[in-house]
Amino acid sequence: MLLKQKRICVTGGRGFLGSHIITTFKCHGYAHLFCADVDEYDLRLPVDIKRMYHDIKPDIVIHCAARVGGIGANRKYPGEFFYDNLIMGVNVMEYARRSGVEKFVAIGTICSYPKHTPVPFREENLWNGYPEETNAPYGLAKKMLLVQSHAYRQQYGFDSIYLMPVNLYGPGDKFDPETSHVIPALIKKCLDAIEYGQHEIVVWGTGSASREFLYVEDCAEAVVLATERYNGSSPINIGTGLEITIRDLVQLIMSLTGYTGTITWDTSKPDGQPRRMLDTSKAEKAFGFKAQTDFKIGLEKTISWYREHRTERIG
């Protein structure tokens, strides 16, 4: 009950994951929730970070503000993805320490794993190589939060934890072709093709790569449970422990959207990391998290949400 009275600040709280984290905290009975979003605070600027801590006076910070995107965006803006994520993370955690924040929850990424990590990905393999090239700048920038977390715990006794969600999807995702990840991109392509009478859609790569996907509401639940129950220094995978090839994912989304046209694979474009699937046993052991949403049901909910909001989305 004492924890539920703490002042909790979610950076990026109006974003895809952040908005679901705030909703989930509310469902768990938390009373003092605050959103720090880009329209009020540019977290690349120390002056805005200082103002955020002065205004909100948080006891707990959930840092999920990030510059994110799919393979195309990562290839187009590697410098921005590196700088924006690195500078935000370093300064938001540093000023949290200076401001007397009691607990810092850093949201990392599985893009930090080496390109050829053995499947399933285990946390102890995190430092055994360089990340997949197309998202290495982003993955390494976010990985520095883990280094900072360890260093601050050692020198200052600062309580920070580091969570690594797998690829997220769900209602509220980004469907802008410039920045979207694979699931919203495929949903949009299929529904656009149906709406405009197109009989072909183009998909990047060969379809042979695999990915693991986590419904965003499940991820938000994991963040809340970790905030309540986990105080360790080790990074923790957040996922389902299940993988699907991109080729099979395309067929599933075609079926669920009703698209019956053809698929053309643009093999001049990269597949990205060959495989992604996590060992999620530590999350279950450390704070009792196990994903609950069936993948097909999650996709149906995502497609339904996007159908209702298509007029509001880009394109």
From TrEMBL:
Name the record gives this protein: GDP-L-fucose synthase
Pathway: Nucleotide-sugar biosynthesis; GDP-L-fucose biosynthesis via de novo pathway; GDP-L-fucose from GDP-alpha-D-mannose: step 2/2
GO molecular function term, any single one: isomerase activity
Chain sites annotated for binding NADP(+): G12, G13, R14, G15, F16, L17, G18, K142, P165, V166, N167, L168, H181
Family annotation (SUPFAM superfamilies): NAD(P)-binding Rossmann-fold domains
Gene: fcl
GO biological process terms, semicolon-separated: 'de novo' GDP-L-fucose biosynthetic process
Reactions accelerated catalytically: GDP-beta-L-fucose + NADP(+) = GDP-4-dehydro-alpha-D-rhamnose + NADPH + H(+)
Cleaved signal peptide residues: none
Site (Important for catalytic activity): T109, C111
Binding of substrate, residues: K189, W204, R211, D271
InterPro entries: Epimerase_deHydtase (IPR001509), GDP_fucose/colitose_synth (IPR028614), NAD(P)-bd_dom_sf (IPR036291)
Top-rank taxon, per record: Bacteria
Family statement: Belongs to the NAD(P)-dependent epimerase/dehydratase family. Fucose synthase subfamily.
Transmembrane segments: none
Residue span, NAD-dependent epimerase/dehydratase domain: 8-239
Lineage: Bacteria, Bacteria division WOR-3
Record's function text: Catalyzes the two-step NADP-dependent conversion of GDP-4-dehydro-6-deoxy-D-mannose to GDP-fucose, involving an epimerase and a reductase reaction.
